[in-house]
Structures are given as C-alpha cells and as structure tokens.
Design brief:
By secondary structure, the protein is α+β, with helices and mostly antiparallel strands. The protein has two domains: 274 residues, no CATH class; 113 residues, Jelly Rolls, CATH 2.60.120. The chain is 70% helix and 10% strand. The chain contains 15 helices and eight strands. The chain has a four-stranded antiparallel β-sheet. A four-stranded antiparallel β-sheet has the order 2-7-4-5, covered by helices on one side. The radius of gyration is 30 Å and the shape is elongated. 25% of the residues are buried.
C-alpha cells in the first residue's frame, strides 16, 4: 500500500508539473532567457580573447603558460572558432571596455528574464528589494561565469596533458575525475541556490537541492547528447559563419528548458496535495479530463495523510470551541446542532462530499455549531494553511465553499427564527 501511495504521488507530481509547465508558457521564457544568455556570452568571449592574447604573450617566456595555451587550442578548437569569426582574433582596448560594459548590461537582462520566469513559476505576492534586484547580476553572474570557465579550462588542460603523455595515466585519470566533480558540483550549487533563493517564498532547502541535482544530471545528459549528435561543422555548412552562434543558442534554449522544468517540478511538489484535494472535493469533476481523473482517481494517499475515522455518536466539533481546521466528509453522515433558548436544536445533516468547519476559519470566530457523527464517518482534516491554498488554487472550489457557507447561514437563521 505504501508503495502504491508513493507511485500515485509521483504520478500526480509529474502530471501537475507538466500541466503547469504548459500553462505558464515556460518554453517562451526559455527562448527569451537563452537569447539574453547569448548576448551575455558574446562580450564574455571578447574578454576571454583578451585573456588568450595575454596568455600568448606570457607563453613566450613560460613553459606552463605555453602548455595551457596549447591545451586550450587543442581541446576547444579555438583556432577554428576564430577562423569562423565566432572569436575575434584581435581586439582593441576600447572594444574590451565596451565588452565589459555590455556584459554587465546584458547580464542584468539575463537575470531579469530568469526572475520573470520564476515569478510565473512561483506566483507569490510581494516584490524583491530594488537594490538586491539590481545588484544581483553584477555579483552573481560574473562569479558563476568565472567558476564554470575555470573548471572547463582546467578540464581541457588535464585532457591535453593526458593525451600528450605528460602525466601518468593513473594521475591523469584521478585529476580528470576530480575536476569533473568540481565542474558538476559548481553547476549543481548554482542551480540549487537559484531554486532556493529566487522564489519569493523560499522552498525547503532539501527539496531545492534534490531537484537541482536532478536538473544538473539532466543538463549533463543533454550536453552529452548534443556532443554526440551535433557537430559545429554541420551548423557551419548550413548556416555559414553563424553556425557556432546557432548551435550555442539551441544548446542554451534546451538547457533553460530543463532548468525551468526543474523549478516547475519544485513548485509542483508543494502543490500536489492541493491539486489532489481539489479533484476529490469537486465531486462533479468540473474541468477535469479523462487523464486527470485517472491520475487523481485514488484517494488512499490523501486518506492516509489527512484522514480520520470516527464512530457513530462521536463529536467532531463542539459549539463555542476554538479551532480553525476544516473537515471534508469523505464517507458517512453527520448531524448539525446549535444551542437556542437553552435547547439543542437540530439544524440538519451533511452527507459525504461536503465540507464543514470552515466557517470558524473564514469568520475568525469560535465554532458556531456542534457536529456529531450519525454513522461511522471518514473525514479529511484540513489545516488552515491548506484550506487557504485550496481556495487560492481553485476558483471553482472557492466558489463552491462560499456558496455552501451562504446556504448554511441562511438555513441556520431560518431554524433560529422558527
């Protein structure tokens, strides 16, 4: 049974993620973000060209610098990229200053595009501090670019030294594995920080770290597939000198699709119970398709988590007591009673599929009636925060709750007047 509940939960998370991902139009956000990433990467390559030129000058009198320069050209085909015009072979000092300013400006646009996507994925009220929003790209992105570029450069240098047999096979393999772990850990840390800190209401750190790990693995698999199926020469033959730019844009688009998918899954983890309860409480199945009814058709997981069983005669709610939990009557029948003129007056009864106890939370008052089980009943106990999420998440359910509450108040007034 526990395994079945976990499978139901996983299926509901996947369905909720896919539904929200499509509804939020995250493919469009990924396209915009990849465009700003390309604009940010272009001046970065100009700055890296300066570094390569400085390394060329340094290599004239330094053997380690000469080895590193040879490794970069050998492993990353910098000569071919320069010949295609993707990396300028010469750069002027003024252009380097413009490249730095452009990098900072487009980095700001890149972070703003990511923030907009996260505001759609995590629709929470509130705004970021203006200073933090403006200062973030000028601090985080240069550090992130520097860490990733450093790990890639070290990986290329180690690979070159191993191929040139300048390192022992065992030592070279160990260094490659260590640097690969360093690069993986860097990407994982950056993704985890983004998942944890970018939402206005920060999710649990453990969930953010776990989703960041899965996203990083997906990114590595994605780039491995790109490396296997795509070659820059293919894009050059189709697009000419812009082949490298097109390939970079396509790779960035795929990477941001995976990045936003992980973020959407992180949000779905916190909403999967809300989505399942919505489908359970909307008995009419309003707005639900066949697939949705199949995914959320089993209630056992919710019953194990929120359900309580009461025998006949048990008092679930007592008039005058304080309490904000609401109850969804899954099965059975309860009676409603209220004190009037020193006597307990029966107001009516509720059957399965109905919600009760929400009035105390919505009105902020004590319980207005006593609820007694007339048969054995199974109820789902909904904490105030969960009831609030349900009403915010589902307009049909909120409308149903308000309608039921109004009808109950009218019936209560009619009985008291009589």
């Amino acid at each position: 049974m526990q395994l079945r509940n976990r499978l139901d939960w996983l299926l509901q998370v996947v369905y909720t993620t896919a539904r929200l991902y499509a509804r939020n139009g995250l493919a469009n956000h990924a396209a915009a973000t990849s465009f700003y990433f390309l604009l940010s990467a272009t001046p970065l390559l100009l700055l890296l060209t300066y570094a390569a030129q400085w390394l060329t000058t340094l290599a004239e009198g330094s053997i380690p610098a000469a080895i590193l320069l040879a490794a970069l050209y050998e492993q990353y085909h910098l000569d071919r990229l320069a010949a295609m015009g993707f990396i300028p072979s010469q750069a002027l000092l003024g252009a380097g200053g413009i490249g730095l300013v452009t990098l900072l400006l487009f980095s700001r646009k890149l972070v703003h595009a990511i923030e907009q996507a996260f505001n759609v994925i995590f629709p929470e009220e509130g705004k970021r501090r203006l200073i933090v929003s403006w200062a973030l790209p000028f601090v985080v992105l240069p550090i992130a670019f520097a860490l990733v570029v450093l790990a890639v450069v070290v990986q290329g240098a180690i690979q070159f030294l191993v191929q040139a047999e300048l390192l022992g096979a065992t030592r070279g393999l160990l260094l490659k594995l260590l640097n690969l772990l360093l690069l993986f850990g860097t990407v994982w840390l950056l993704v985890a920080i983004a998942y944890w800190r970018l939402p206005l209401r920060h999710p649990r750190l453990r969930q953010a770290a776990a989703l960041a790990l899965l996203t990083t693995l997906a990114l590595y698999l994605l780039f491995a597939l790109f490396e296997y199926f795509f070659r820059i020469e293919q894009y050059r033959s189709v697009y000419g000198a812009l082949g490298g730019v097109v390939l970079t844009l396509v790779a960035a688009y795929a990477a941001f699709l995976a990045f936003y998918l992980g973020a959407q899954c992180l949000y779905a983890l916190s909403k999967v119970d809300v989505a399942a309860l919505e489908r359970l409480m909307l008995a009419s199945g309003e707005g639900a398709g066949r697939l949705e009814r199949l995914v959320f058709g089993r209630a056992r997981r919710l019953l194990d988590k929120y359900g309580r069983v009461h025998p006949p005669g048990a008092t679930l709610i007592r008039e005058g007591e304080r309490g904000e939990e609401a109850y969804f009557l899954y099965s059975g029948r309860v009676g409603l009673y209220k004190q009037a003129n020193g006597q307990q007056v029966r107001l009516g009864e509720l059957g399965e599929g109905q919600l009760f106890g929400e009035m105390a939370y919505l009105l902020g008052e004590a319980r207005t009636a006593t609820v007694v089980a007339e048969t054995e009943v199974v109820v789902l106990v909904l904490p105030p925060a969960l009831l609030e999420e349900l009403m915010r998440h589902s307009a049909p359910l909120a409308r149903q709750i308000i309608t039921t509450l109004a009808e109950r108040l009218m019936r209560m007034n009619a009985v008291l007047r009589a």
